[in-house]
Amino acid sequence: MITKRWSLVVAGLAAASLMLAACAPADDSQGGKGGGSDKGPVTLTYWDFLDPSQNNPRANALRENIAAFEKANPDIKVDLSVVSLGDMLSRLPQAAAAGQAPDVFKMFTPTVPQMAAAGAYSPLPAAASDVKDWLRPVNTLAGPDGKQVAVPYEYRTCSLYYNQKILDKIGATVPKTYDEVVDVAAKAAAAGYTGFGTGFSDTDNSAIIATFFDCFMSQVGQDIWNKDGHAAFAGAKAAEFGDFLAKLRDAKALGSSVVSDSYSTVTDGLANGTVAMAVLGTERIVTYGKTNPDIKWTALPKASTGGQTGATIGWTMGIGAGSKHVDAAWKFIEYMTGAKAGAVMATGGEVPPRASTYKESYFSTPEADTVKSIADYVKSNSKPHAYSDNWIAVASGLSHAGQSLYLNGLTGKEFISAAQDAANK
């Protein structure tokens, strides 16, 4: 990760965690804090944002995989709590400081360093280094000491989604550059659609605008932070991202409620045919193929500089701070990221992170073609990069600056400067 000074809050939580650890008795039978021979029945606490009780492909796959793991490991039970990303970000540091972190939890790639700096992770066991077939490098999933704290659960990157029916209606072809996106979006807006869907709400950790920004910075080769971990992206390359948004605003191609629109607003708009285009993560491709076949996807448009390579992102799995069941926790993580579970996960549209998974029989069937094409795209059109421990501050800064861009007429350059200033407060 990028080294950055810890905030007083994080330092306070770390100090509280140390005091609690000092007062707690050692558990030699489990190898001490963070150890664990895991002899006898073990119940793992697990936080996941997915609710396996729901009836959708991703939830069904999660439920099936947990049941299969428990069947294969009868001495290990998994106690799952459904926790949103926003709640995880606020609750994990507190839980770790109180010695109550879950044994295993999922975390979104950009926020792994933030949670590591807050002391939410236990180090991965030595056995984790035996896994060598990750499709993308994993060295960026590290804590302040540079040691790896998480492994990929699934991969995704950004792509351009478009409604082919709308483009046909307005006589437009699929745009190849961001300037062409503005032109097509303007035509779609004139026909009564939202030309380009995005949102400046910070209610969901500014997910849609922040992910788009992350991929755009990768495209143009602009670092988001300096070596000290401070946001330092303001400049000509990042200003092009702001200019793109300003041009969409001036073309009246953004949604009328863009200041409060979120990820779900845009994904719903694409699904119901009211949004012509959007840049989203590849995790929606399989779902749209089933719910609205008019929605197609393609590589990111080109900026004036750089190429079409976005950021490699996705959900990860790690072991909670102070877990007394590290061995069992790693066994669960290894299973959930392994070949059999990955094949089941792929039926829900997620891209498995390990090469061995693609040797499973499922990937020889026509049903797997879409996931394989997404995996190929992620491998060829994305690249992992290091994050600082203030991603949420960057994301929030982008949301607030976006609101000012739309409501107060900021230029693209002013938008980028405002976002950077907010991130560094």
Automatic annotation (TrEMBL):
Pfam families: SBP_bac_1 (PF01547). Keywords: Signal. Residues 1-21 form the signal peptide. This is Sugar ABC transporter substrate-binding protein. It comes from Microbacterium panaciterrae.
